[in-house]
Each structure stands twice: as structure tokens, then as C-alpha cells.
Amino acid sequence: MGRSIPLLPRNALLALLHGYRATISHAYGDVCRYYPSCSAYAVGAVQQHGAAKGAALAALRIARCHPWAAGGVDDVRPHAHFRYELTPHGFVVPPRKD
């Protein structure tokens, strides 16, 4: 339980992103020039890099997304030392000790 406390900001931001993707993102439809979409990129960035750096990476991605952008595939670079597991809903949890 104690190992999950540092992951609270990351998972709180992921919960907000999931809420956005479930409601507002569907209203816009498929308008992003990049793949994955900006909101999916934000989820991946926060999962891999944490709340602060993930939010910064997502903000930079949104700044690159404009009508004159070439677009294309722009995946989140995985963290070199990612040591957590993801739940089926995309939340980050400490690895299990089996």
C-alpha cells in the first residue's frame, strides 16, 4: 500500500484524462493530425513519465498540433527504467511480488 502513494498524482491525472476521453473527446470526433490522438498521447506520456513530465510532454504535443502541421505517427518514447505495471483501465500500480 505504501508503494502506491507516490503514484497518486499520476493516477489522479490519468483519471482526469480518462474522463476527458470518455466525454469531451468523443464530441470532437477524429480531428487530430497525429496518431495516436493528443489525448491518447497524454495518457501514454503520464503513464510512462509521471504527472509533471507527462503533462509537459502532452502540452508540447498539443502545441505542435495545428492546421499546418504535417502530422503522422508520434508515439510516446518509453521511459528507459519504467518499473510499474498497468491495470486494464490504464492506471499505474507497483509491480507485484510473486
Contiguous helical run count: 4
Please tell me the overall pLDDT.
90
Report Rg: 14 Å
Major beta sheet, strand line-up: 1-2
Class by alpha and beta content: mainly alpha
Order of helices and strands: HHEHHEEE
Low confidence ranges = none
Characterize the largest beta sheet: strand count, sense, and whether it forms a barrel: 2 strands, parallel
Share in β-strands: 5-15%
Shape: globular
Helical content (DSSP H or I, runs of 4+): 40-55%
Strand segment count = 4
- From the N-terminal CA to the C-terminal CA, the straight-line distance is 16 Å
Subcellular location: Cell membrane
Membrane topology: Peripheral membrane protein
Family: Belongs to the UPF0161 family.
Protein name: Putative membrane protein insertion efficiency factor
